[in-house]
Write a sequence for this structure.
């Protein structure tokens, strides 16, 4: 029986793929990945050289928008196409930035295909670890707790959540930097915050939150707040 | 100037090393790693074949105990020995199970050497991602939050923390399974819990919490609680 692989390709540096991901991508006859309406997208670009020529590629094209309609349509259509390959005995590897199960696009395919097909997930380097490495900031030691939370949550919820843990990793910060600054000022932790952009990539930058706000936040960034 | 590398070697499957970790371990003239008083320990065993013969190896031998005296002494002595190699121009790669900055032993060397030497961290696959892959459980999607917390925290603290997040990853669960069960029963989430032992290793097991309590918990295990 053919297998559906969810393959984490890490935060951007092609060397941060695992040996397992690299092997599977060389072997898999069919490769699928989320992609913008034009161009190849980050996940496909990370593994550029690793996929042999002539493999079947399925870009799941979607608009990058808060509205989920385009993404849902792409996953619906993609799941049908992937299922056809699996039914005909061909393994399919789905590329996923970071880790497949932590805010990963693979979750949407797992929801659609997980019940009827054999699935294996290859974990990937997730952005909190890549951002911690970029800023040499320990995430947790001894009995400390770490909160991973999207900055899309409301200001009230972030205020409530942020006081509970020694370390906070804020995802999806791009448009929410002003809100994050207000929340951290209230809890007196603004000076502990670092904005990390494109961790592990050539354009990696580590900034204070004030510097990031002045420059403007981007999608591929996160804010770490230390104890 | 020689460099100190903190190298994440992942959760146990040697194929879950990154390409970067594998390259650095082939190149580094000196390799250090935490180890029990006898034997080589998990981190060194994961990279078994990757380190060429004849390299200088520095096992940081410590008693596996709640008392930190033995570990602190090993990191103190290890830091001095590592510094000597760096001073003489030799790069040193420190192996670390999982990720170096998430409950990683490398943090203790970073504290001792980070100010005076050039440091680079290579992130590794951390146990929450490996455990999620083992149990095919999404950790977070959309605006969900994830809590990473050691089960060594008090019952009252765990109760307070656990209600705040959609997904909980409990570290260091071995001796705390009964406490975890009480906390999860109170918050009505026991049926959402999975105990994952030795994720990614040949002996990997995914159990309910009741099954795990009956069998007995081990050190290399975590409990995931889904939404």
């Amino acid at each position: 029986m053919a297998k559906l692989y969810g393959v984490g390709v890490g935060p951007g540096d092609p060397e941060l793929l695992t040996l397992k991901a690299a092997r599977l991508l060389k072997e898999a006859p069919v490769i699928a990945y989320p992609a913008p309406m034009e161009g190849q997208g980050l996940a496909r670009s990370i593994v550029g050289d690793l996929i042999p020529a002539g493999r079947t590629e399925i870009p799941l094209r979607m608009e990058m928008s808060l509205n989920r309609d385009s993404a849902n349509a792409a996953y619906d259509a993609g799941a049908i196409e992937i299922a056809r390959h699996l039914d005909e005995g061909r393994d399919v590897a789905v590329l996923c930035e970071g880790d497949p199960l932590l805010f990963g696009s693979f979750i949407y395919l797992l929801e659609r295909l997980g019940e009827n097909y054999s699935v294996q997930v290859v974990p990937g380097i997730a952005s909190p670890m890549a951002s911690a490495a970029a800023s040499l900031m320990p995430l947790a030691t001894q009995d400390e707790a770490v909160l991973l939370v999207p900055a899309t949550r409301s200001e009230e919820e972030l205020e409530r959540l942020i006081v509970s843990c020694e370390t906070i990793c804020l995802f999806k910060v791009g448009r929410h930097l002003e809100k994050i600054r207000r929340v951290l000022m209230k809890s007196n932790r603004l000076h502990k915050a670092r904005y990390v952009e494109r961790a592990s990539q050539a354009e990696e930058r580590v900034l204070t939150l004030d510097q990031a706000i002045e420059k403007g936040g981007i999608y591929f960034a996160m804010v770490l707040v230390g104890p």
The helical segments of chain A are 19-27, 41-46, 69-87, 106-113, 127-135, 155-162, 177-186, 209-215. Chain A has a mean pLDDT of 96. Residues 93 and 177 of chain A are 35 Å apart (CA to CA). The beta strands of chain A are 3-8, 30-35, 56-61, 92-96, 118-122, 146-150, 167-171, 193-197, 205-207, 221-225.
